[in-house]
Design goal:
about 55 residues; little secondary structure; two-stranded antiparallel sheet; extended
Length: about 55
Protein backbone atom coordinates (compact mmCIF):
# COMPACT_ATOMS: atom_id res chain seq x y z
CA UNK A 1 0.00 0.00 0.00
CA UNK A 2 1.45 3.45 -0.91
CA UNK A 3 2.60 5.75 1.89
CA UNK A 4 -0.27 7.95 3.11
CA UNK A 5 -2.93 5.58 1.76
CA UNK A 6 -5.61 4.34 4.09
CA UNK A 7 -7.35 1.01 4.26
CA UNK A 8 -11.04 0.80 5.12
CA UNK A 9 -12.21 -1.87 7.53
CA UNK A 10 -15.67 -2.19 9.02
CA UNK A 11 -15.54 -2.73 12.77
CA UNK A 12 -18.15 -4.62 14.74
CA UNK A 13 -19.19 -4.03 18.33
CA UNK A 14 -16.47 -5.45 20.54
CA UNK A 15 -13.70 -5.21 17.91
CA UNK A 16 -10.47 -3.49 18.91
CA UNK A 17 -9.89 -0.18 17.20
CA UNK A 18 -6.89 -0.14 14.88
CA UNK A 19 -3.98 2.02 15.99
CA UNK A 20 -4.14 5.60 14.69
CA UNK A 21 -2.41 8.93 15.25
CA UNK A 22 -4.18 12.25 15.81
CA UNK A 23 -3.10 15.82 16.43
CA UNK A 24 -3.76 16.94 19.99
CA UNK A 25 -3.81 20.34 21.63
CA UNK A 26 -0.67 22.38 20.99
CA UNK A 27 0.47 20.63 17.79
CA UNK A 28 1.25 17.50 19.81
CA UNK A 29 0.44 14.10 18.27
CA UNK A 30 -0.84 11.08 20.15
CA UNK A 31 -1.32 7.47 19.11
CA UNK A 32 -4.06 5.20 20.39
CA UNK A 33 -1.38 2.66 21.27
CA UNK A 34 0.20 5.22 23.67
CA UNK A 35 -2.70 4.53 26.05
CA UNK A 36 -2.81 0.72 25.76
CA UNK A 37 -2.83 -0.79 29.24
CA UNK A 38 -2.61 2.64 30.89
CA UNK A 39 -5.93 4.45 30.50
CA UNK A 40 -9.41 3.91 29.14
CA UNK A 41 -10.04 5.67 25.85
CA UNK A 42 -13.42 7.00 24.71
CA UNK A 43 -13.70 7.96 21.05
CA UNK A 44 -16.50 10.25 19.90
CA UNK A 45 -17.06 11.83 16.52
CA UNK A 46 -18.87 15.13 16.19
CA UNK A 47 -19.49 15.79 12.51
CA UNK A 48 -19.76 19.48 11.70
CA UNK A 49 -19.11 20.41 15.33
CA UNK A 50 -16.70 23.23 14.48
CA UNK A 51 -18.36 24.51 11.33
CA UNK A 52 -20.37 27.75 11.29
CA UNK A 53 -24.14 27.42 11.19
Amino acid sequence: MPQGATQTKTLKVGDRAPDFTLKAHGERTVKLSDFHGKKNVFIAFYPLNWTPV
